[in-house]
User: Fold this.
Amino acid sequence: MDGSIPIWVYYIIGFPLLLGPLVTLHELGHYLVGRWFGVKAEAFSIGFGKEIWGRTDSRGTRWKVSALPLGGYVQFKGDMDPASIPHPEAAANATPEERDGSFHHASLGKRALIVFAGPAMNIIVTLAIFISFFMMFGKPVPVNVEEQMTIGSFSEQSAAPAAGLEVGDKIVSIDGEPVVGFQELIRAVQLYPNTVLDIGIERDGEEMVFPVRTYSVEQEDRFGNKGTIGLIGITAAAEQSRYDYEDVGLIQSTQLSLQQTGMLVDMMVTGIKQILVGDRSVKELGGPVTIGKYAGEQLSLGPLAFFNLAALISLNLAFINLLPIPALDGGHLAFYAAEAIRRKPLGPRSTEVAYRAGVALVLALMVFVTFIDIAKLPFFGN
Assistant:
């Protein structure tokens, strides 16, 4: 961090610098695939609400920046609103001229691909960033992996000795999944505070499995952000975080990026499950204020940290948009799946009720996470 620049400057710059390109690329995915299929776009907006800048191109698309920078949309021909919520009566009564280039008169497959293209673009952005990292820095390979995975000692809080683990045991798996390197072990454990995990070890050439309960620790980073993680309270027999970096090409970088992305998706799903069942506090959710705070903090650490956050937020955007909630991309895709199975669209009444409920749910979630954001600000006393 450059100490001459106040952190609030990074907050102001970081938020639009992070979300602006990610939202633009998401909507560009919708727009480009729609244009490929001959669907006309009437408006392409970054942000919601009142237009603060705009221009109309030769195809009749209004490109604009709007006042509320919390998203964006592409409004295709035939859309009655920016969310592309179908209005069956208007679609059925459309004239031949109105049907030409209309989103709702495109084939089911084309509509599904146009909708999926937005989240797909965000996934591509995540993969591109990770591929770039692996090609620049290489694949991390743990040094002295045998000693890294060998237990050297236990902490006082550790339940591992009582569960049967001993100094000298080599850890080989967590809940049946193999782990290589101490940092991989940490990642496999820290998402599960106060949880019993099956720790697979190797002792005298024999493999054994012991159920060990993790304990909970609240961590705080250099910016004061707090989070709860799980630990099993062991120390490795060798330096725990020493890695070499092996040069990799495009193909292997792509494979590693897919693995990294899959791991992050698994972490997101696990985190949501834990919040739903009460294993984690809803205070760990974050909305626009939290995103802006993290964006500024990571920007202050340099471009690599900022791009790493961009990859994570881009994947989050894809994940959230693919949830089967009406008014989100995933909700549209769920309706299209139902239409494909029934071989006809859902009834207008059920469609309207579902989309109204979906919009209400999305708005309620936005208000909820924003309230959590504000409540976490220092002047509210956390």
Observations:
- The mean pLDDT is 86.
- The CA atoms of residues 30 and 147 lie 50 Å apart.
- The radius of gyration is 25 Å.
- The longest strand covers residues 41-56.
